[in-house]
Amino acid sequence: MMKKIKLSNMLIVLILSLGAIIMVGPLLWMISTSLKDKAGVFQLPPQWIPNPVRFDAYKRLSELDTLFSGIKNTVIVSLSVTIIGTLTSSLAAFSFAKLRMPFKDVLFLLLLAALMIPYPAVMIPQFMMFSKIGWVDTLLPLIIPGMFGNITMIFFLRQYLSNIPDSIVEAAKIDGAGYLQTFFQLIFPLIRPAIAAQFILWFMGAWNDYLAPLIYLNSPEKQTLQVVIANLNAAYAIQTDYPLIMAASVVSLLPVLVVFIIFQKQIIESVALSGMKG
Question: Can you give the residue range of the structural domain that contains 131?
Answer without folding.
Answer: 57-277
